[in-house]
Protein: Uridylate kinase
Organism: Candidatus Nitrosacidococcus tergens
Amino acid sequence: MTLDKRPKYRRILLKLSGEALVGKGEHGIDSRVIQEIAQELSTLNKANIEIGLVIGGGNIFRGVGLATAGIDRVTADHMGMLATVMNALALQNSLDQLNIASRVMSAIRINQVCEDYIRRRAVRHLEKGRIVIFAAGTGNPFFTTDTAASLRAIEIEAELLVKATKVNGIYSSDPFTNPTARFFPQLTYDQVIEHKLGVMDATAIIMCRDHTLPIRVFDFHKTGDLLRITQGENIGTLVTSE
Ligand code: UDP
């Protein structure tokens, strides 16, 4: 892997679902998987790419699921947001072990555990080469961490929102269950919304569209692809206004 190519993107926002941390289990955090993620992030960090990261909580709690089980929806969403903080702390711990400086910034105030989210401070951390992990989503119930990713990406003026998934981009339907699913190398925001392609929720896509923030969807399991994306390689699916 080469680190000497000039990056196309200097500041990115990576959205990782909670599911990405599960590994072979069904719930929780697989320490081996989280170490691999930290390793991948450290490669980017060493290539001087500024990385903001929004992490989901679906491996622990999702508000909708808890609400179905009888918990009040707002309380359930608070639990979901706190789950994202746990994931963020786990990832920070793995980055610490690699001597990569990072900060967890929470949208819900729990400042004995991590920093509060303050935009200017987040940008300063990025400029100093620290990875910033944005936890607790938007801080509001009824939103998702996809929307938090769009919001934070726009706020920190990221040049690209990178959404990590289990497959190598956007398909017409789930390629795991439908072998005839069609792969799309490039799409517009409106096509994603119109065809309900389900890669991110509509609120998240619309925010990106309204602020012309490009999205790249890729398979996080392919080591080195994230770095190649920042160098401008055409990997996965690109979503833009054209
Ligand atoms: N959540 C929320 N507001 C936000 C972001 C997240 O209430 O701004 C809650 C919501 O209950 C959600 C849970 O946190 O289900 C975990 O986030 P998400 O489902 O987006 O995680 P992912 O699917 O990416 O793992």
Notes: The chain has one domain: 11-240. The domain at 11-240 is CATH 3.40.1160.10 (Carbamate kinase). The chain has a mean pLDDT of 95.
